[in-house]
């Protein structure tokens, strides 16, 4: 009897330990839905559930490591909280993971993620919530087609009736024309026909002063038209060509709030704003291999389209997303240039982006109170963060530049200008006393030919 009770007690303890261990191992005490939010906020830069990115795939990682390495939740807690400390302690598997992934150290989440947060993330990797069923597009399309069918039939009937009415009207006009021809051939009009002017020369002789005046007016209009056409050669406002790889500034600069100068870094330090190399794209797209922003889809485009464009980036850079390494086989991308200054024009981006940044923004917002900008680039290139396809937003003519120089006030309190124009400041105030001594770009040489043409 005592022996049975002893074994019974041991059995209950074993079952309890098994259940608690199982719950601990598989993260069943975590919240997968909250874990999904935490995973996307903290882990997706380096990890995915179904494939290797910078780090290994994490789908089912708890079960996998329990089976292969006999590691439990406590190990994951230590690893995620501070992997550096765990590796420094001499943990064998922690150092193996570090070596196997190119010694790419994982971020330390000590103080950022609680024990419960980590359990939620692990629960998500073991049991990710099922996606909500999407609307059946085929059924929706069929229903829309069925509803539109009566409307289409009605439209067809209206078109047929209209064509018949037009045909009847044409027949009636032909009949009337035939009657007029017969009337013109009657004897009653013979005398009238003899008095009519029968040639253009007779008309010109009779009204030659009017004719010469009309010819002069036409000559002036033709001259103006030719001059206007010549002046607009090379002006391509609204030009927006298709590019070999589709790139939406609205998604990157607008939706994702990426700074212009992160990609166009030379605009701040050089004469030209270079086209970013594909390696700049790979800074992000090494880990972003598919489009998941379902909240924003352009009309006529779907996830498959965006995923295909990302694959073009991989092909251009020679990136193998499966092996997470470069193959060395690259393909050049032939971008179509949109903004191209003539060879005889000098324009320095750095001078405008750095020295003139605040002055240009202030001037633009003053002239456009209902269309204000927050980035200096938009003054010339338009609201680029709203463009899916980049287009030339302004004329970029000489007159357009001169008008800007005449109306943009120079910030004389700017550290650079204050020092550079130290001796000229008072002189300029006396020379340009209008508007309370405000100094515009034209006052400091903004209209000198040699500034832009050399």
From TrEMBL:
> Cytochrome c domain: from which residue to which, for each copy?
30-129
**Translocase in keyword set:** no
**Molecular function via GO:** electron transfer activity; heme binding; iron ion binding
Q: Which SUPFAM superfamilies match?
A: Cytochrome c, Multiheme cytochromes
- The answer to whether UniProt assigns keyword S-adenosyl-L-methionine to this entry is no
Q: Region Disordered: list its residue ranges.
A: 124-147
Transmembrane region(s)? 157-175, 214-235
* Signal peptide span: 1-25
Question: What are the protein's UniProt keywords?
Answer: Electron transport, Heme, Iron, Membrane, Metal-binding, Signal, Transmembrane, Transmembrane helix, Transport
Q: Which protein, by its recorded name, is this?
A: Quinol:cytochrome C oxidoreductase
- To which species is this protein native? Candidatus Chryseobacterium massiliense
Organism lineage: Bacteria, Pseudomonadati, Bacteroidota, Flavobacteriia, Flavobacteriales
């Amino acid at each position: 009897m005592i022996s049975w009770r002893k074994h019974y007690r041991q059995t209950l303890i074993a079952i309890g330990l098994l259940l608690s261990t199982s719950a601990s191992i598989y993260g069943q005490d975590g919240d997968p839905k909250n874990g999904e939010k935490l995973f996307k906020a903290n882990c997706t830069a380096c990890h995915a559930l179904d494939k290797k990115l910078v780090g290994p795939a994490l789908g089912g990682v708890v079960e996998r490591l329990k089976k292969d390495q006999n590691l439990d939740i406590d190990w994951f807690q230590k690893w995620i909280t501070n992997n550096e400390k765990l590796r420094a302690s001499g943990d064998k598997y922690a150092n193996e993971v570090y070596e196997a992934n190119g010694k790419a150290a994982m971020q330390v989440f000590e103080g950022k993620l609680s024990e419960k947060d980590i359990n939620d993330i692990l629960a998500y990797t073991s049991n990710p919530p099922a996606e909500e069923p999407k609307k059946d597009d085929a059924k929706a399309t069929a229903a829309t087609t069925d509803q539109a069918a009566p409307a289409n039939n009605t439209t067809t009937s209206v078109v047929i009736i209209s064509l018949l009415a037009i045909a009847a009207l044409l027949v009636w006009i032909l009949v009337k024309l035939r009657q007029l021809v017969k009337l013109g051939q009657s004897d009653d009009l013979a005398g009238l026909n003899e008095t009519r002017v029968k040639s253009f020369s007779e008309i010109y002789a009779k009204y030659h002063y009017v004719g010469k005046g009309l010819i002069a007016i036409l000559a002036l209009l033709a001259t103006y038209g030719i001059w206007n056409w010549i002046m607009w050669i090379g002006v391509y406002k609204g030009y927006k060509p298709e590019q070999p790889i589709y790139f939406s500034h609205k998604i990157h600069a607008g939706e994702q709030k990426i700074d212009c100068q992160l990609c166009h870094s030379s605009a701040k330090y050089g004469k030209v704003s270079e086209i970013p190399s594909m390696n700049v794209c790979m800074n992000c797209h090494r880990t972003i291999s598919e489009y998941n922003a379902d909240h924003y889809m352009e009309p006529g485009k779907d996830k498959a389209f965006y995923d295909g464009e990302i694959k073009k980036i991989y092909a251009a850079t020679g990136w193998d997303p499966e092996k997470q390494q470069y193959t060395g086989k690259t393909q050049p991308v032939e971008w179509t240039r949109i903004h191209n200054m003539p060879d005889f024009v000098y324009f320095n981006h750095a001078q405008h982006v750095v020295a003139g940044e605040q002055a240009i923004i202030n001037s633009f917002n003053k002239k456009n109170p209902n269309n204000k900008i927050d980035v200096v680039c938009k003054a010339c290139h338009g609201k680029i963060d709203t463009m899916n396809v980049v287009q030339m937003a302004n004329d970029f003519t000489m007159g357009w530049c001169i008008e800007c120089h005449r109306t943009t006030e120079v910030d004389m309190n700017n550290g650079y200008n204050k020092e550079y124009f130290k001796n000229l400041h008072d002189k300029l105030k006396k020379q340009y006393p209008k508007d309370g001594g405000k100094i515009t770009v034209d006052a400091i040489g903004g209209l000198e030919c040699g500034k832009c043409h050399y």
